[in-house]
Every structure is written in C-alpha cells, then in structure tokens.
Amino acid sequence: MELICDSPAHKSVPDKYVLPLEKRPCSHELLEDLSVVLPVIDLQGALGEGRRQVVGEIMEAGKEFGFIQVVNHGVAEDVIQGFREVAAEFFKMPEEEKLRYYSSDHTKPCRVFSGSLTSHNDANDIRYWRDCLKLRCYPIDKMMHQWPSHPAMFRECLAKYAVAVQELARRFLQLIAKGLGFDNQDFFEGDLSGGETLMNVNYYPPCPDPSLTMGIRPHCDRHLLTILSQGDVSGLQAKHRGRWIRVQPIHNAFVINFGLQMEIVTNGLLPSVEHRAVTNSAKARMSVASLIRPKIDCTIGPTPTMFNEETNPPKYKDFTCSEFTEAYEAAAGNREAVLDFFKIHHTPS
Questions:
Q1: In the chain, how many domains are there?
Q2: Which CATH number does the domain housing residue 206 bear?
Q3: What is the pTM of this model?
C-alpha cells in the first residue's frame, strides 16, 4: 500500500512499473509533423454572431481528431488554479494522511490508488507510473461530505471547480447538439448527461526512465464527454490516423474529448479516440479529468436522426449504461472489443 509520490527518489524504474517491450512508448510511433496539431477553438465566439462558425469548427475538429482544445471557455482562471493548487497540496501531504483514502474498491466515492493494472489477469502485476485521487464530484450537494477535508480549502475549491466545469459541459453539449442538426439544443440534458460526474486527479511524479513505462495505458474513455485540465506540463498524446500526436499544453485551456457512448449516440460520426499519458524525468505532472456520464439506468443507442435504414443504417443496438459498463470491464477497455458487444452486423440485401 504505497504511493509513488511517497517513495524515495528512484534512480531506476522498479520492475513492477517496467512495461513489456511491445507496450512501451516507442518514439517511432510519434508523429512529429508540426502541421498536425490539435485544433484550438475560442468558445467566446459562441456567445454572439459567431456561434455558427464555432459550431462548425467543433464538428470539423471532432470528426477528424475526437479531441479539441478550448479557450475563453468561461471557467475563471482563479477557479482552475485554485483547485489545481489544493489538489497538488493533497499529494504533498504526509503519507498517513493520504493513505486514509487508499482503496482498491471501485465503488468508493472517494479513493486514492497508485498505478493501474495492465489487465485484470496480469499475474506479474505490472503497473503504470501515476498516483490518482478519484472522486464523485457532481452534484456537489450529494458528494461534498465525502471529499477530503484536507488541505483546508480542498472542498471549497473543488465545489467551485466542479460547478464551473459542469456548466461548461452543458454549454458545449448544446453546441454539439446544434452541430448534429438536432431541433432541441438541450438534447443531451437529463438522462444522457445527468449521471454522477466522476473526477480523476492524476499525479505523475518524475520518472527516472520514461522509455520503460507510461502514466496511463492507451485507452478510449467510456463515457459521454471528458473535460481535462492538463496543466502546463506535456504528457497527453492522442492517436491520429495510426500515429500518436502530442497535445501541447495551453495555459488554462481545457482539452475535451468524446467517449465511446458519444460515438454510439452519434452512430459513429463523433469518434472516441485512443489516448495515453507518457512520463518525463524532469517535472511532476498533474491532470484533472472530469467525466460527464449518463444516468446508470439510461438507455443509450444511435439517435434516430443520425441514421437512415437504407443508406446509413444504425451501427449499434440500444443498451443501458450499466450494460455498457459491464462490457467495458469485460473487454478491459479495448475500443474495438467494447464496440463489438453492441455492433449490429448487417447482412447485404
């Protein structure tokens, strides 16, 4: 029961963090073409006459990359930095304070853990180079009493941040609904985005040899939408046309990406893209991911306006959010395996 950030400074990567050769972050996989960068979209234009243009930019970037960086998003800098500062303080607290929250029980509303297994059946127990504080953070009136009470301002700062990010998610989903041509801009309100919002505060200590391990394995998010504050230290990479691209940090920007459930709701139009976190030897890195989720008993499937039985038939069958969670766990998060659970295999006429 140990966090990496509480360990003495490592001169080498301990064996349990060393990935098999085929899982290591090979440099030849990284696309260095400087013309391929993640689009940065200014959301301020969506408040006025530029709304249609912003919607178009979001849809174009979403179809091509599945990832978007947004600036002028309406979340105040002091709210973002206020929570990032107390979250960083949390990981600097004495070991015994953090270990009060240590748990491998995935049902706990607030827990700390270190690394994550490469698979559920990995006998060698190989782990990734990160510590994580996982929280249920919204609605705050139901969740706040379960959050850490230290550092002193933690609950107050998280409450402000969670409310502001939830509002950003609501406005962004309205823009997506418009871009999809839905008559109702509040299409995603209610069941599709009304589940408890989860938050992963990921802390990546400096790593003595980043070529041997990773912070988080390649994966696709399972939920509707992820809103990420990645800070000012690089580490996030997204898959683009078979190669990895760096998601360069922009101060106070948010990175927004679609989950597998969004891909299914849009019948494949807005893809959920594989991404990973790499480490570095010089600086600690911290990212804050807010996961916007449907209600657990919500029925999910392709929206009728997104398919046509003759020319563009539905690619997936309907399912409940709980059924999707079971499939995701069974497939250990593998994108193609998860989607195959729900794929409709059409026979040629």
A1: 1
A2: 2.60.120.330
A3: 0.94
